[in-house]
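Q: Hi! First time doing this. I have a protein sequence and I read that you can turn it into a structure. Is that right? Here it is:
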Amino acid sequence: MDFRRGQRREDPEINLIPMIDILLVILIFLMVSSTFIHQRGLNINLPSGSNKNNELTKDQVIEVDMDQQGKVSVNHHIWSNNLSQLTTLVADHLTNKSDTYIVIRADKNLSHGQVMEVVSDFQQIGFNHFTLVTEDSNH
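A: Yes, that's right. Below is the predicted 3D structure, encoded as structure tokens:
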């Protein structure tokens, strides 16, 4: 009970400055810790299909990107469909051919024959495990 008569009580004030500071720190933390979209060198529209997530390490994978114009990049380096250049681009993986997977991201408008030419070139230098990347059909 308040027995003081005649004295006016001051209304409590909420200081917003510390709250804004905390919100800015949280925002900065979320921006720094969020995952950024990995941009590839070639613009590729993937075909849809069911995705099965296989966890492979970076040492087990050779990434092959193929755009609609038929440009091919191997591990983010443009490849001119020359076998000797391909051997140079994948030199780190030549000793572990049986454990290496060729992950192919081909544009959905690319012909099947062009994809098979790349697969054939990899087979000629001894690689036998291939994976095609697709968009999840649930989107």
